[in-house]
Predict the structure.
Amino acid sequence: MTTELRPAFDLLECARHPAADFEAEGGACVELSGRGGVQHRGEAVGQRHGVWLAVEVGRHGGSVAEVYVELDVGGAVRWLGVEDRGTAPRLFEGPSRRVWALLTARVDGRPQELALPARGRAELPEPALAQPFGGALIGAGDRIGQVAPDPGGPAKPDALQMLAIRDGFARREPKVRLPLPGGHDLLPEPDGFQALVRDGAGYLHRELSDRGSVVRERSLSLPQGIVRPARLSFDGLSELLVADERSIVHLAIGPNGATVRSMPLLELPRRRHVHGLSRVEVLPDGRLCCAYELTDGDGWFIARGGELQEHFTRVEHRGYAELMSGRDLLLRGAEWRVTRVALCARGYAAVVSGPSSVVALLRP
């Protein structure tokens, strides 16, 4: 049987960051620090009452502790726990909105993957061990998907494996191969996935079962660049974000596959180019939240109906500037980067990691 995690209040300090102008709107700003430094690798799960993070905390002697941090919407710490069963935790929300971690542990000299709740794991069945799959986690609830592209690229099929969780135990279902081409971007649904995948010069929009078979598909002609789906539907409106080197555009696609609306969200000055877009988070009120990476910085934005509502971008030696209001999230040093934007209650959490600490900005 498993045992509960040890609290980590001796390893990690959580303090309010001086961002009073943002907190006045009902949000919070929290800085996580420790003697050996704190780093965030991108793992976060948003919930109705707040957000969970997994951070790395330096220990005396050079070792690292994996620590789970639960923050409520006001920035108060609800839980700090030190992981003792594995490393490199990847977080997801399981049944009954319980947060789980997918871990890697060495067993008899070999890496093995296991899944356990991030809190409340006392006296659960010992987790099953499996060869690490390494795919991105998709979905929430009692069935979680892992999808991994083949190293061979689009000419090779993606692999999909489902985790079925019941009574505190995660059972792995057999791996399946998705139809070619590879490189699917999946959005979970109750009985499967909506998917977008590049096909030559165009794209395929697919509805997939949770076994990976195609229920229906259609071809879409989309602009060239980085494409991230926010919503996909065969019967209603689909929304996507498309980034080329100089701009990010919001696209709305109708049931017939035609573009209904194309609205520019961000136009970048010369010498600043978009290199990457995160997965799009859809907030409960329909707003879209997305982080981006530039040649010389990064940032994140909130949009609704093709209109920009918030836009934070990194400013050298100053932190992040919110360009719509002219306010700053002031941060010491220059080596900050956005590691995740995630749902948080009815708003979102933006997490930025610096040289030795992590800052979480919780927004309504």
In short: DSSP finds one helix and 33 strands in the chain.
